Protein backbone atom coordinates (compact mmCIF):
# COMPACT_ATOMS: atom_id res chain seq x y z
CA UNK A 1 0.00 0.00 0.00
CA UNK A 2 2.71 2.44 1.06
CA UNK A 3 4.98 1.46 -1.81
CA UNK A 4 2.07 1.97 -4.24
CA UNK A 5 1.44 5.44 -2.78
CA UNK A 6 5.14 6.19 -3.02
CA UNK A 7 5.26 5.05 -6.65
CA UNK A 8 2.22 7.19 -7.49
CA UNK A 9 3.77 10.21 -5.76
CA UNK A 10 7.06 9.70 -7.56
CA UNK A 11 5.24 9.25 -10.87
CA UNK A 12 3.29 12.48 -10.31
CA UNK A 13 6.45 14.35 -9.34
CA UNK A 14 8.22 12.97 -12.40
CA UNK A 15 5.38 14.12 -14.67
CA UNK A 16 5.28 17.52 -12.97
CA UNK A 17 9.02 18.04 -13.44
CA UNK A 18 8.75 16.90 -17.06
CA UNK A 19 5.89 19.34 -17.62
CA UNK A 20 7.93 22.15 -16.06
CA UNK A 21 10.86 21.27 -18.32
CA UNK A 22 8.50 21.31 -21.32
CA UNK A 23 7.11 24.69 -20.21
CA UNK A 24 10.64 26.11 -19.94
CA UNK A 25 11.49 24.83 -23.45
CA UNK A 26 8.32 26.33 -24.93
CA UNK A 27 9.13 29.67 -23.28
CA UNK A 28 12.70 29.58 -24.59
CA UNK A 29 11.71 28.65 -28.14
CA UNK A 30 8.95 31.28 -28.12
CA UNK A 31 11.41 33.95 -26.99
CA UNK A 32 13.69 33.00 -29.91
CA UNK A 33 10.83 32.61 -32.40
CA UNK A 34 11.07 35.96 -34.16
CA UNK A 35 14.84 35.77 -34.47
CA UNK A 36 14.71 32.51 -36.35
CA UNK A 37 14.17 31.67 -39.95
CA UNK A 38 10.47 32.14 -40.54
CA UNK A 39 9.62 28.46 -40.92
CA UNK A 40 6.85 28.60 -38.31
CA UNK A 41 5.51 32.06 -39.15
CA UNK A 42 2.63 30.65 -41.18
CA UNK A 43 1.67 28.46 -38.21
CA UNK A 44 1.57 31.56 -35.98
CA UNK A 45 -0.64 33.47 -38.43
CA UNK A 46 -3.01 30.51 -38.76
CA UNK A 47 -3.17 30.08 -34.99
CA UNK A 48 -4.07 33.76 -34.48
CA UNK A 49 -6.65 33.47 -37.23
CA UNK A 50 -8.27 30.42 -35.65
CA UNK A 51 -7.97 31.36 -31.97
CA UNK A 52 -8.46 35.11 -32.27
CA UNK A 53 -10.29 36.12 -35.43
CA UNK A 54 -12.60 33.11 -35.72
CA UNK A 55 -13.66 33.51 -32.08
CA UNK A 56 -14.71 37.16 -32.47
CA UNK A 57 -18.35 36.28 -33.11
CA UNK A 58 -18.96 34.14 -30.03
CA UNK A 59 -16.91 36.54 -27.86
CA UNK A 60 -18.98 39.49 -29.06
CA UNK A 61 -22.27 37.70 -28.36
CA UNK A 62 -21.15 36.76 -24.82
CA UNK A 63 -19.83 40.24 -24.06
CA UNK A 64 -22.98 41.96 -25.34
CA UNK A 65 -25.26 39.57 -23.44
CA UNK A 66 -23.43 39.82 -20.12
CA UNK A 67 -22.91 43.57 -20.39
CA UNK A 68 -26.57 44.11 -21.25
CA UNK A 69 -27.72 41.83 -18.42
CA UNK A 70 -25.62 43.71 -15.85
CA UNK A 71 -26.90 47.07 -17.08
CA UNK A 72 -30.53 45.93 -17.02
CA UNK A 73 -30.26 44.29 -13.59
CA UNK A 74 -28.16 47.14 -12.17
CA UNK A 75 -30.32 49.93 -13.50
CA UNK A 76 -33.53 48.34 -12.12
CA UNK A 77 -32.37 46.60 -8.93
CA UNK A 78 -29.68 48.95 -7.63
CA UNK A 79 -31.75 52.08 -8.22
CA UNK A 80 -34.45 50.62 -5.97
CA UNK A 81 -31.93 50.85 -3.14
CA UNK A 82 -30.60 54.19 -4.28
CA UNK A 83 -27.32 52.61 -5.33
CA UNK A 84 -27.66 53.10 -9.11
CA UNK A 85 -24.17 54.60 -9.41
CA UNK A 86 -22.67 51.20 -8.43
CA UNK A 87 -23.97 49.72 -11.65
CA UNK A 88 -20.95 51.12 -13.51
CA UNK A 89 -18.48 49.78 -10.93
CA UNK A 90 -20.02 46.31 -11.12
CA UNK A 91 -20.09 46.45 -14.92
CA UNK A 92 -16.40 47.37 -15.10
CA UNK A 93 -15.29 44.79 -12.53
CA UNK A 94 -17.28 41.98 -14.14
CA UNK A 95 -16.46 42.80 -17.75
CA UNK A 96 -12.82 43.86 -17.55
CA UNK A 97 -11.41 42.08 -14.53
CA UNK A 98 -13.43 39.02 -13.61
CA UNK A 99 -15.95 37.40 -15.89
CA UNK A 100 -14.55 38.81 -19.13
CA UNK A 101 -11.07 37.23 -18.94
CA UNK A 102 -12.44 33.97 -17.56
CA UNK A 103 -15.17 33.57 -20.19
CA UNK A 104 -12.75 34.45 -22.96
CA UNK A 105 -10.38 31.80 -21.58
CA UNK A 106 -13.23 29.26 -21.56
CA UNK A 107 -14.02 30.02 -25.19
CA UNK A 108 -10.36 29.52 -26.10
CA UNK A 109 -10.16 26.29 -24.10
CA UNK A 110 -13.24 24.93 -25.83
CA UNK A 111 -12.13 25.91 -29.32
CA UNK A 112 -8.33 26.10 -29.46
CA UNK A 113 -7.29 23.99 -26.48
CA UNK A 114 -9.08 20.93 -27.81
CA UNK A 115 -7.98 21.68 -31.38
CA UNK A 116 -4.30 21.97 -30.43
CA UNK A 117 -4.27 18.83 -28.27
CA UNK A 118 -6.12 16.67 -30.80
CA UNK A 119 -4.21 18.02 -33.81
CA UNK A 120 -0.83 17.37 -32.20
CA UNK A 121 -2.05 14.02 -30.90
CA UNK A 122 -3.11 13.03 -34.40
CA UNK A 123 0.25 14.14 -35.77
CA UNK A 124 2.04 12.06 -33.13
CA UNK A 125 0.02 8.94 -33.99
CA UNK A 126 0.67 9.43 -37.73
CA UNK A 127 4.41 9.87 -37.02
CA UNK A 128 4.32 13.38 -38.47
CA UNK A 129 6.20 14.76 -35.47
CA UNK A 130 8.88 12.10 -35.94
CA UNK A 131 9.06 13.16 -39.59
CA UNK A 132 9.77 16.74 -38.50
CA UNK A 133 12.58 15.50 -36.26
CA UNK A 134 13.94 13.37 -39.12
CA UNK A 135 14.34 16.38 -41.43
CA UNK A 136 15.84 18.53 -38.68
CA UNK A 137 12.85 20.56 -37.56
CA UNK A 138 12.59 20.99 -33.80
CA UNK A 139 8.92 20.21 -33.03
CA UNK A 140 8.91 22.55 -30.02
CA UNK A 141 10.27 25.43 -32.10
CA UNK A 142 8.10 24.75 -35.15
CA UNK A 143 4.89 23.32 -33.72
CA UNK A 144 4.73 24.50 -30.10
CA UNK A 145 6.22 28.03 -30.12
CA UNK A 146 3.93 29.53 -32.81
CA UNK A 147 0.85 27.93 -31.23
CA UNK A 148 1.88 29.21 -27.80
CA UNK A 149 2.40 32.74 -29.12
CA UNK A 150 -0.77 32.57 -31.19
CA UNK A 151 -2.95 31.56 -28.25
CA UNK A 152 -1.38 34.09 -25.83
CA UNK A 153 -1.66 36.98 -28.30
CA UNK A 154 -5.20 35.99 -29.27
CA UNK A 155 -6.33 35.61 -25.65
CA UNK A 156 -5.10 39.09 -24.76
CA UNK A 157 -6.64 40.58 -27.91
CA UNK A 158 -9.96 38.83 -27.27
CA UNK A 159 -9.99 40.25 -23.73
CA UNK A 160 -9.72 43.76 -25.15
CA UNK A 161 -12.42 42.92 -27.67
CA UNK A 162 -14.62 41.54 -24.88
CA UNK A 163 -14.13 44.81 -22.96
CA UNK A 164 -15.15 46.93 -25.93
CA UNK A 165 -18.29 44.93 -26.61
CA UNK A 166 -19.11 44.38 -22.94
CA UNK A 167 -18.80 48.04 -21.95
CA UNK A 168 -19.86 49.88 -25.09
CA UNK A 169 -21.71 47.48 -27.35
CA UNK A 170 -23.98 46.36 -24.54
CA UNK A 171 -25.16 49.97 -24.23
CA UNK A 172 -26.66 49.65 -27.70
CA UNK A 173 -28.42 46.41 -26.74
CA UNK A 174 -29.87 47.98 -23.60
CA UNK A 175 -31.44 50.77 -25.68
CA UNK A 176 -33.82 48.19 -27.05
CA UNK A 177 -35.01 47.17 -23.58
CA UNK A 178 -34.38 50.00 -21.15
CA UNK A 179 -33.11 53.21 -22.78
CA UNK A 180 -30.38 55.12 -20.95
CA UNK A 181 -29.10 58.51 -22.05
CA UNK A 182 -25.92 58.19 -24.12
CA UNK A 183 -23.96 60.98 -22.42
CA UNK A 184 -25.08 59.88 -18.95
CA UNK A 185 -23.92 56.27 -19.54
CA UNK A 186 -20.52 57.07 -21.02
CA UNK A 187 -19.81 59.96 -18.62
CA UNK A 188 -20.42 57.69 -15.62
CA UNK A 189 -18.57 54.78 -17.21
CA UNK A 190 -15.39 56.72 -18.05
CA UNK A 191 -15.44 58.45 -14.68
CA UNK A 192 -14.98 55.08 -12.99
CA UNK A 193 -13.03 53.11 -15.60
CA UNK A 194 -9.28 53.18 -14.93
CA UNK A 195 -6.46 52.00 -17.22
CA UNK A 196 -5.57 49.48 -14.49
CA UNK A 197 -8.96 47.81 -14.92
CA UNK A 198 -8.20 47.09 -18.56
CA UNK A 199 -4.56 46.17 -17.87
CA UNK A 200 -5.37 43.72 -15.11
CA UNK A 201 -7.91 41.98 -17.36
CA UNK A 202 -5.44 41.76 -20.23
CA UNK A 203 -2.81 40.54 -17.72
CA UNK A 204 -5.15 37.75 -16.72
CA UNK A 205 -5.65 37.00 -20.40
CA UNK A 206 -1.89 36.63 -20.76
CA UNK A 207 -1.72 34.17 -17.84
CA UNK A 208 -4.72 32.19 -19.09
CA UNK A 209 -3.24 32.11 -22.60
CA UNK A 210 0.01 30.68 -21.24
CA UNK A 211 -1.86 28.04 -19.24
CA UNK A 212 -4.19 26.97 -22.05
CA UNK A 213 -1.50 26.77 -24.71
CA UNK A 214 1.10 24.96 -22.60
CA UNK A 215 -1.42 22.46 -21.20
CA UNK A 216 -2.87 21.74 -24.65
CA UNK A 217 0.56 21.41 -26.26
CA UNK A 218 1.74 19.15 -23.46
CA UNK A 219 -1.30 16.89 -23.73
CA UNK A 220 -1.00 16.75 -27.52
CA UNK A 221 2.68 15.84 -27.48
CA UNK A 222 2.01 13.21 -24.78
CA UNK A 223 0.05 11.05 -27.25
CA UNK A 224 2.22 8.12 -28.23
CA UNK A 225 0.82 5.22 -30.14
CA UNK A 226 -2.89 4.86 -30.44
CA UNK A 227 -5.56 6.94 -32.13
CA UNK A 228 -7.77 6.34 -29.07
CA UNK A 229 -5.36 8.49 -27.05
CA UNK A 230 -6.23 11.53 -29.19
CA UNK A 231 -9.72 12.33 -27.78
CA UNK A 232 -8.41 11.56 -24.29
CA UNK A 233 -5.69 14.15 -24.86
CA UNK A 234 -8.38 16.67 -25.86
CA UNK A 235 -10.49 15.93 -22.78
CA UNK A 236 -7.48 16.16 -20.47
CA UNK A 237 -6.41 19.44 -22.08
CA UNK A 238 -9.88 20.92 -21.43
CA UNK A 239 -10.13 19.60 -17.87
CA UNK A 240 -6.64 20.68 -16.82
CA UNK A 241 -6.95 24.07 -18.50
CA UNK A 242 -10.29 24.80 -16.79
CA UNK A 243 -8.95 23.90 -13.34
CA UNK A 244 -5.65 25.72 -13.75
CA UNK A 245 -7.30 28.86 -15.16
CA UNK A 246 -9.80 28.99 -12.28
CA UNK A 247 -7.02 28.46 -9.73
CA UNK A 248 -4.89 31.13 -11.37
CA UNK A 249 -7.90 33.48 -11.42
CA UNK A 250 -8.49 32.97 -7.69
CA UNK A 251 -4.83 33.66 -6.92
CA UNK A 252 -4.70 36.78 -9.11
CA UNK A 253 -8.01 38.11 -7.76
CA UNK A 254 -6.89 37.50 -4.18
CA UNK A 255 -3.61 39.27 -4.92
CA UNK A 256 -5.56 42.30 -6.19
CA UNK A 257 -8.17 42.56 -3.46
CA UNK A 258 -6.31 41.30 -0.39
CA UNK A 259 -3.49 43.80 -0.58
CA UNK B 1 44.18 2.58 -39.87
CA UNK B 2 40.56 1.44 -39.83
CA UNK B 3 38.12 3.92 -41.32
CA UNK B 4 35.38 5.31 -39.08
CA UNK B 5 32.03 3.60 -39.72
CA UNK B 6 29.29 5.75 -41.15
CA UNK B 7 27.02 4.70 -38.31
CA UNK B 8 27.87 2.87 -35.14
CA UNK B 9 25.27 1.54 -32.73
CA UNK B 10 26.57 0.55 -29.32
CA UNK B 11 24.51 -1.33 -26.75
CA UNK B 12 21.25 0.32 -27.81
CA UNK B 13 18.20 -0.28 -25.64
CA UNK B 14 14.73 1.13 -25.94
CA UNK B 15 11.66 1.06 -23.74
CA UNK B 16 8.17 2.01 -24.97
CA UNK B 17 5.05 1.83 -22.88
CA UNK B 18 6.92 -0.04 -20.14
CA UNK B 19 8.12 -2.76 -22.55
CA UNK B 20 11.68 -3.28 -23.66
CA UNK B 21 11.59 -3.01 -27.44
CA UNK B 22 15.35 -3.16 -28.00
CA UNK B 23 17.93 -4.82 -25.82
CA UNK B 24 21.65 -4.12 -26.05
CA UNK B 25 21.86 -3.95 -29.84
CA UNK B 26 25.27 -3.20 -31.34
CA UNK B 27 25.84 -2.80 -35.08
CA UNK B 28 28.11 -1.00 -37.50
CA UNK B 29 27.33 0.38 -40.91
CA UNK B 30 30.35 1.03 -43.10
CA UNK B 31 30.35 3.78 -45.71
CA UNK B 32 28.62 2.56 -48.84
CA UNK B 33 27.19 -0.48 -47.09
CA UNK B 34 23.57 -1.57 -47.36
CA UNK B 35 22.41 -3.27 -44.18
CA UNK B 36 19.03 -4.96 -43.99
CA UNK B 37 17.39 -5.51 -40.62
CA UNK B 38 15.08 -8.47 -40.78
CA UNK B 39 12.69 -9.86 -38.24
CA UNK B 40 9.06 -10.64 -37.66
CA UNK B 41 6.44 -7.98 -36.89
CA UNK B 42 7.15 -6.42 -33.50
CA UNK B 43 10.76 -7.56 -33.46
CA UNK B 44 12.01 -3.99 -33.04
CA UNK B 45 13.20 -3.22 -36.59
CA UNK B 46 11.42 0.14 -36.86
CA UNK B 47 12.42 1.12 -33.33
CA UNK B 48 16.04 0.29 -34.15
CA UNK B 49 15.93 2.49 -37.26
CA UNK B 50 14.23 5.38 -35.50
CA UNK B 51 16.57 5.22 -32.53
CA UNK B 52 19.61 4.93 -34.78
CA UNK B 53 18.38 7.97 -36.73
CA UNK B 54 18.04 10.00 -33.54
CA UNK B 55 14.27 10.24 -33.89
CA UNK B 56 13.50 8.23 -30.75
CA UNK B 57 15.45 8.64 -27.54
CA UNK B 58 17.16 5.41 -26.43
CA UNK B 59 16.85 4.08 -22.89
CA UNK B 60 20.50 3.10 -23.02
CA UNK B 61 23.48 2.87 -25.34
CA UNK B 62 24.66 5.29 -27.96
CA UNK B 63 24.64 5.99 -31.69
CA UNK B 64 27.62 7.52 -33.45
CA UNK B 65 27.53 9.17 -36.87
CA UNK B 66 31.03 9.27 -38.33
CA UNK B 67 32.46 8.95 -34.84
CA UNK B 68 30.32 11.62 -33.16
CA UNK B 69 27.64 10.63 -30.67
CA UNK B 70 24.21 11.85 -31.72
CA UNK B 71 23.34 12.76 -28.14
CA UNK B 72 26.48 14.92 -27.82
CA UNK B 73 26.07 16.81 -31.08
CA UNK B 74 25.85 20.59 -30.95
CA UNK B 75 23.29 22.45 -33.06
CA UNK B 76 25.55 22.72 -36.11
CA UNK B 77 26.59 19.07 -36.01
CA UNK B 78 22.99 18.00 -35.65
CA UNK B 79 21.98 20.13 -38.63
CA UNK B 80 24.78 18.56 -40.66
CA UNK B 81 23.63 15.08 -39.62
CA UNK B 82 20.02 15.82 -40.56
CA UNK B 83 21.09 17.21 -43.92
CA UNK B 84 23.27 14.17 -44.58
CA UNK B 85 20.59 11.66 -43.61
CA UNK B 86 17.13 10.82 -44.86
CA UNK B 87 14.40 8.73 -43.28
CA UNK B 88 11.61 7.04 -45.20
CA UNK B 89 8.82 6.01 -42.82
CA UNK B 90 6.86 2.79 -43.14
CA UNK B 91 3.56 4.69 -43.29
CA UNK B 92 5.05 7.66 -45.21
CA UNK B 93 4.32 10.09 -42.33
CA UNK B 94 3.58 12.95 -44.71
CA UNK B 95 2.50 16.21 -43.11
CA UNK B 96 -1.24 16.11 -43.66
CA UNK B 97 -1.84 19.85 -43.53
CA UNK B 98 0.70 20.60 -46.24
CA UNK B 99 0.65 19.94 -49.97
CA UNK B 100 2.89 17.29 -51.52
CA UNK B 101 5.10 20.10 -52.81
CA UNK B 102 5.41 21.61 -49.32
CA UNK B 103 6.23 18.18 -47.92
CA UNK B 104 9.12 17.91 -50.34
CA UNK B 105 10.19 21.54 -50.14
CA UNK B 106 10.46 21.88 -46.36
CA UNK B 107 13.68 19.83 -45.93
CA UNK B 108 15.25 21.74 -48.83
CA UNK B 109 14.26 25.15 -47.50
CA UNK B 110 15.57 24.16 -44.10
CA UNK B 111 18.98 22.94 -45.20
CA UNK B 112 19.55 24.83 -48.44
CA UNK B 113 18.39 28.29 -47.49
CA UNK B 114 20.24 29.85 -50.43
CA UNK B 115 18.24 27.98 -53.05
CA UNK B 116 15.75 29.85 -55.18
CA UNK B 117 12.14 28.65 -55.39
CA UNK B 118 12.75 27.27 -58.90
CA UNK B 119 15.72 25.26 -57.61
CA UNK B 120 13.58 23.91 -54.78
CA UNK B 121 10.87 22.96 -57.26
CA UNK B 122 13.39 21.29 -59.58
CA UNK B 123 14.79 19.21 -56.70
CA UNK B 124 11.28 18.23 -55.60
CA UNK B 125 10.36 17.17 -59.16
CA UNK B 126 13.59 15.21 -59.50
CA UNK B 127 12.85 13.30 -56.30
CA UNK B 128 9.31 12.40 -57.40
CA UNK B 129 10.57 11.37 -60.84
CA UNK B 130 13.17 9.15 -59.20
CA UNK B 131 10.54 7.22 -57.28
CA UNK B 132 8.18 7.18 -60.27
CA UNK B 133 5.37 9.34 -58.88
CA UNK B 134 3.72 11.61 -61.42
CA UNK B 135 0.79 13.13 -59.54
CA UNK B 136 -0.25 16.69 -58.82
CA UNK B 137 2.18 18.31 -56.38
CA UNK B 138 -0.51 20.72 -55.14
CA UNK B 139 -2.62 17.90 -53.71
CA UNK B 140 -2.75 17.06 -50.03
CA UNK B 141 -1.53 13.66 -48.78
CA UNK B 142 -5.10 12.62 -47.93
CA UNK B 143 -5.97 12.79 -51.63
CA UNK B 144 -3.37 10.15 -52.53
CA UNK B 145 -3.55 6.37 -52.28
CA UNK B 146 -1.42 4.57 -49.69
CA UNK B 147 1.08 3.51 -52.35
CA UNK B 148 1.37 7.06 -53.70
CA UNK B 149 1.87 8.45 -50.20
CA UNK B 150 4.57 5.87 -49.65
CA UNK B 151 6.38 6.93 -52.83
CA UNK B 152 6.18 10.60 -51.88
CA UNK B 153 7.51 9.73 -48.40
CA UNK B 154 10.50 8.04 -50.01
CA UNK B 155 10.94 11.00 -52.35
CA UNK B 156 11.01 13.31 -49.32
CA UNK B 157 13.76 11.18 -47.77
CA UNK B 158 15.75 11.37 -51.02
CA UNK B 159 15.12 15.01 -51.86
CA UNK B 160 18.43 16.23 -50.41
CA UNK B 161 20.34 13.27 -51.87
CA UNK B 162 21.41 12.06 -48.39
CA UNK B 163 24.62 10.15 -47.79
CA UNK B 164 22.98 8.02 -45.11
CA UNK B 165 19.52 6.67 -45.69
CA UNK B 166 17.14 4.96 -43.28
CA UNK B 167 14.27 3.13 -44.93
CA UNK B 168 11.54 1.50 -42.87
CA UNK B 169 9.80 -1.21 -44.92
CA UNK B 170 10.26 0.63 -48.24
CA UNK B 171 8.17 -1.80 -50.28
CA UNK B 172 5.32 -2.13 -47.78
CA UNK B 173 2.07 -1.01 -49.42
CA UNK B 174 3.60 -0.74 -52.90
CA UNK B 175 2.44 -2.52 -56.03
CA UNK B 176 4.83 -4.94 -57.75
CA UNK B 177 6.12 -2.44 -60.30
CA UNK B 178 6.82 0.17 -57.62
CA UNK B 179 8.50 -2.44 -55.42
CA UNK B 180 10.73 -3.45 -58.32
CA UNK B 181 11.51 0.20 -58.91
CA UNK B 182 12.43 0.54 -55.24
CA UNK B 183 14.93 -2.23 -55.70
CA UNK B 184 16.41 -0.31 -58.65
CA UNK B 185 16.55 2.90 -56.63
CA UNK B 186 18.35 1.16 -53.78
CA UNK B 187 20.87 -0.37 -56.13
CA UNK B 188 21.39 3.00 -57.79
CA UNK B 189 22.04 4.56 -54.40
CA UNK B 190 24.50 1.78 -53.57
CA UNK B 191 26.34 2.52 -56.79
CA UNK B 192 26.72 6.09 -55.72
CA UNK B 193 28.27 5.02 -52.44
CA UNK B 194 25.33 5.84 -50.19
CA UNK B 195 25.12 4.08 -46.84
CA UNK B 196 21.70 2.55 -46.35
CA UNK B 197 20.02 0.83 -43.44
CA UNK B 198 16.72 -0.81 -44.31
CA UNK B 199 14.17 -2.66 -42.26
CA UNK B 200 12.38 -5.11 -44.49
CA UNK B 201 10.78 -8.49 -44.52
CA UNK B 202 10.65 -8.52 -48.33
CA UNK B 203 13.09 -11.24 -49.30
CA UNK B 204 13.29 -10.11 -52.96
CA UNK B 205 14.47 -6.68 -51.94
CA UNK B 206 16.96 -8.12 -49.48
CA UNK B 207 18.24 -10.59 -52.10
CA UNK B 208 18.69 -7.81 -54.63
CA UNK B 209 20.29 -5.17 -52.47
CA UNK B 210 21.73 -6.34 -49.14
CA UNK B 211 25.43 -6.31 -48.37
CA UNK B 212 24.83 -7.37 -44.79
CA UNK B 213 21.86 -8.70 -42.89
CA UNK B 214 20.93 -8.37 -39.23
CA UNK B 215 18.16 -10.40 -37.62
CA UNK B 216 16.19 -9.12 -34.66
CA UNK B 217 13.99 -11.33 -32.51
CA UNK B 218 12.02 -9.69 -29.68
CA UNK B 219 14.33 -6.67 -29.68
CA UNK B 220 17.50 -8.72 -29.47
CA UNK B 221 20.05 -8.85 -32.27
CA UNK B 222 20.51 -12.59 -32.79
CA UNK B 223 22.57 -12.60 -35.97
CA UNK B 224 24.56 -10.18 -38.12
CA UNK B 225 26.65 -11.06 -41.14
CA UNK B 226 27.18 -10.72 -44.86
CA UNK B 227 24.39 -11.59 -47.25
CA UNK B 228 26.05 -14.82 -48.30
CA UNK B 229 26.46 -15.78 -44.64
CA UNK B 230 22.78 -14.97 -44.04
CA UNK B 231 21.75 -17.28 -46.90
CA UNK B 232 23.69 -20.08 -45.22
CA UNK B 233 22.30 -19.54 -41.69
CA UNK B 234 20.63 -22.82 -40.77
CA UNK B 235 19.50 -22.27 -37.19
CA UNK B 236 15.75 -22.75 -37.00
CA UNK B 237 14.75 -19.34 -35.66
CA UNK B 238 16.99 -17.60 -38.22
CA UNK B 239 15.70 -19.71 -41.09
CA UNK B 240 12.20 -18.62 -40.09
CA UNK B 241 13.24 -15.05 -40.94
CA UNK B 242 15.83 -15.48 -43.68
CA UNK B 243 14.66 -18.78 -45.17
CA UNK B 244 13.49 -17.25 -48.44
CA UNK B 245 16.78 -15.49 -49.23
CA UNK B 246 18.33 -16.92 -52.39
CA UNK B 247 22.01 -17.31 -53.19
CA UNK B 248 23.07 -14.63 -55.67
CA UNK B 249 24.32 -15.33 -59.14
CA UNK B 250 28.03 -14.73 -59.41
CA UNK B 251 28.83 -11.27 -60.69
CA UNK B 252 32.38 -10.47 -61.88
CA UNK B 253 34.31 -8.62 -59.21
CA UNK B 254 34.82 -5.57 -61.41
CA UNK B 255 31.08 -5.17 -61.77
CA UNK B 256 30.15 -5.18 -58.10
CA UNK B 257 30.16 -1.36 -58.02
CA UNK B 258 27.49 -1.17 -60.68
CA UNK B 259 23.80 -1.46 -60.22
CA UNK B 260 20.44 -2.15 -61.72
CA UNK B 261 20.14 -3.26 -65.31
CA UNK B 262 23.90 -3.10 -65.77
CA UNK B 263 24.58 -5.59 -63.01
CA UNK B 264 22.01 -7.98 -64.49
CA UNK B 265 23.40 -7.56 -68.01
CA UNK B 266 26.90 -8.08 -66.73
CA UNK B 267 25.88 -11.16 -64.82
CA UNK B 268 24.39 -12.48 -68.06
CA UNK B 269 27.30 -12.02 -70.46
CA UNK B 270 30.19 -10.85 -68.28
CA UNK B 271 31.08 -8.14 -70.83
CA UNK B 272 31.66 -4.70 -69.31
CA UNK B 273 29.47 -1.99 -70.84
CA UNK B 274 31.34 0.66 -72.83
CA UNK B 275 29.59 3.51 -71.13
CA UNK B 276 30.28 3.30 -67.43
CA UNK B 277 28.74 6.64 -66.58
CA UNK B 278 28.16 6.84 -62.86
CA UNK B 279 30.04 3.63 -62.07
CA UNK B 280 33.29 5.16 -60.91
CA UNK B 281 34.38 2.10 -59.02
CA UNK B 282 33.81 -0.07 -62.07
CA UNK B 283 35.72 2.36 -64.29
CA UNK B 284 38.65 2.37 -61.90
CA UNK B 285 38.75 -1.40 -61.76
CA UNK B 286 38.43 -1.63 -65.53
CA UNK B 287 41.33 0.75 -65.99
CA UNK B 288 43.32 -1.28 -63.44
CA UNK B 289 42.74 -4.46 -65.44
CA UNK B 290 44.04 -2.82 -68.60
Gyration radius over CA of chain B = 19 Å
Please identify which CATH superfamily of the domain at 33-59 and 74-248 in chain B we are dealing with: P-loop containing nucleotide triphosphate hydrolases
Largest sheet composition of chain B:
6 strands, mixed
Q: Which architecture name of the domain at 33-59 and 74-248 in chain B does CATH use?
A: 3-Layer(aba) Sandwich
Poorly predicted tracts of residues of chain B: 269-283
Report the order of strands and helices of chain A. HHHHHHHHH
- Strand percentage of chain A lies at under 5%
Mass-distribution shape of chain B: globular
Largest interface: A-B, 17 and 28 residues
Helical content of chain A (DSSP H or I, runs of 4+) = over 70%
The termini of chain B sit apart by: 29 Å
Main β-sheet description of chain A: none
Supply the number of helical segments of chain A.
Answer: 9
Rough outline of chain A: elongated
What's the CATH class label of the domain at 33-59 and 74-248 in chain B? Alpha Beta
If you average the pLDDT of chain A, what whole number results? 90
**Separation, N- and C-terminal Cα atoms of chain A:** 44 Å
Strand order of the largest sheet of chain B: 6-7-8-3-9-10
Mean pLDDT of chain B, as a whole number?
84
Give me the secondary-structure category of chain A.
mainly alpha
* DSSP strand tally of chain B: 10
Amino acid sequence: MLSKLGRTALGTLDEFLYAMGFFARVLKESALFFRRRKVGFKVLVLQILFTGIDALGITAIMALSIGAAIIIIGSSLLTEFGQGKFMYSILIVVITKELGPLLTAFVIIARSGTAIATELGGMAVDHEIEAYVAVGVDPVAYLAAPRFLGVVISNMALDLYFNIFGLMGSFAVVQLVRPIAFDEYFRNLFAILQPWDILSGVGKGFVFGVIISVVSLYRGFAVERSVTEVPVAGIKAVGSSFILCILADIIMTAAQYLR
Amino acid sequence: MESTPELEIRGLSSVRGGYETLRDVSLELARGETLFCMGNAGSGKSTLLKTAAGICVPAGGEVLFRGTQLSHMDKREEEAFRKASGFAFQDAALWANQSIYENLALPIRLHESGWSESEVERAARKATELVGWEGNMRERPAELSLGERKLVGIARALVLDPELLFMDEPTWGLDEASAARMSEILRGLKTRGRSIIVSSAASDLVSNCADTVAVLINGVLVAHGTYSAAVAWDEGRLRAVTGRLKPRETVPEWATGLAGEWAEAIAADATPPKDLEGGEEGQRRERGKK
